[in-house]
Amino acid sequence: MIRIITFLILLLFFSITAEAQVNSSVLVKSIVRVEVVIGTKANVCTGFIWQKPNQIVTSLHAMNPSGDIRVLYLNNSWRAAKIKSVLEKADLVLLEIKPGQEPIPQGVVALTTFNGQKISENTEIKALGYNSGARGISTRSLKKGWVDPETLNYLIPPKDRDVLKKIGFPELDLDIIYLDGSLLPGYSGSPVFDPSGKLVGIGDGGLEKGASNVSWIIPAKFLAELENSNVTSLPANFAEISQLFSAQVTLEPSVESVASAQQNDKSQGGSADETKSSFVQYDESETEYYGGEFEEYAPVMSPDFEFYLTKNRSLDEMAETSVDPESLYSITNYVEAFNVKLDYDELRFDIYEDINYGVVLAVPEGEDFYYDADSGDFHVNYEANPNVDLIYMGVTGDYSQTDFNTLIEDVLVWVPPIIQKEWAVEQFTINQDFSHWIEVEGNRKIANILMVSEDFEDPEFTGNSKIYLYITLLMGNDKAFMAISSYCMSDTQLLNAQQYGLDCLTYTSDECDYFESLIKVFCAAHLTTFAY
């Protein structure tokens, strides 16, 4: 009898264990790629089959009033679709495959149930979708975060609340599932599953905040309301709304999508030539095509952090949505005071987002960003430019009871001596005008500290120079992360610019490159932030 009981207990244990695993190879049969084609471009996002093989749920913000909607089943079979119903308040749309096409391919599986129970903090959940418009479906492990109450009104910063309140979409009192970490572009509309493989929500990508995004998940309980909605058209102010979101990807449509669109439209009365000219121009000789200009990048990873390159932004673009644009432009104003004119649109940054802990970095465009396992730090490779240096370092753990001022003091004890040794300079002094710390929502704190060395003789430019050290320190309940930039500013270069003027708006020069490098590395450190 004991052996039988033991066997039954073991059988129950293994049954529970098997049930608690997400089987991605099965779930992918329910997932589709959605392209909304506008001219020669396409918004790319993820969707999933809901209740019927011809019904697709995805994010409303990826739609377009003049776009043609195409759905890719099983990663190899395109179908044209139309909007069946809209749930504006939750940023959801239900698509329906247009009649008169080839049958839905065999093997697809519709999701029909969901887990509507409240998800506990720190629960690991998984999103499946087309990361940044990639050809293949991939999983993204996420962790349930904490915000109370769990609504948009209490999650997003005041500036974004004001925008959403003005346009009325999505609703600020909407129940959401908050994430620790970030949803990457392309996961808009992706199904999100609990550890047992039950659908719990829909990835909603996030609001555009220049460098960072505000990410959340729409609870699956809204699916019933979406199905019963009688609204079939996009909101009147949709163009303004959709520009707020950052998690759909804009690419040139794939050749497979174009060819399928031609065939489907031809079967509905249009000619292939007409469809080709109205849909997109492409090279028929091209035999392999991987989604336009998109190139899939491997993440830059440490044991704790996992950074993905998600977009590219100019300094002006980030300033438009920055919480603190005045501080962002403080160093540029300082340099411009020396008669230096700069083209801010040419000051561009590659944005990297960490999916595990929600840290966002703005790395100067085109620079090599990598993790050094020996030092345990992230680095930007500036071997070709000896005047600047930029590194990042982070740790994870329980920081909920850590005093932020004490952490700042500790940083100021051990960081400056490292930079002094690197640049062979004397003691640093804190510049109070450019140094402050702020507390943002969700128990997150950000410190910006500028330190300046004593003058030293600079053999490269003759005369005296100073080393500027700029530190951005982030602290949340589960992490501390820091960006450290240092750069050499020549008094001779500043005085020459002040006396003769330096116009980098109309031409480039070594002097322009010098000042742009200084500003980029300063702004890169300053723009290190949370994904919210």
What does this structure look like?
With 532 residues, this protein is of the alpha+beta class. 25% of the residues lie in helices and 33% in strands. A hairpin with a 3-residue loop joins strand 4 (68-73) and strand 5. Helix 7 (255-267) crosses helix 8 (272-279). 43% of the residues are buried. Residues 1-20 and 265-296 have low confidence and may be disordered.
Give the low-pLDDT segments.
Answer: 1-20, 265-296
CATH C-level of the largest domain: Alpha Beta
Measure the end-to-end span.
56 Å
What does the average pLDDT come to? 81
The helix tally amounts to 14
Radius of gyration: 26 Å
Whole-number tally of structural domains: 2
Give the CATH H-level superfamily of the largest domain.
Mog1/PsbP, alpha/beta/alpha sandwich
Would you kindly provide a brief summary of this structure?
The chain is of the alpha+beta class and 532 residues long. Helix content is 25%, strand content 33%.
